[in-house]
Amino acid sequence: MVGINYPTVEHYLRRLDERGAVTTKGEYRKMYFLSECVALHVERLGVDVDTGMDGTDEVDE
Fold this sequence. Notes:
The protein is mostly helical. It is built from 2 helices and no strands. Helix 1 crosses helix 2. The longest helix has 13 residues, at about 5-20. The protein starts with 5 loop residues before the first helix and ends in a 17-residue tail after the last helix.
């Protein structure tokens, strides 16, 4: 099991959404993932879960 904190999950959900990876049919566009599922998507993107998407330790707000 991968341990990541809630702000990190929100950060990656936002980034996945920006890339068009978080979509569903119908009116609701966002899907809510378990932290393990988010970590899997992040791994597939080749990003370390301890750093931001740009390679820094800062999480975009």
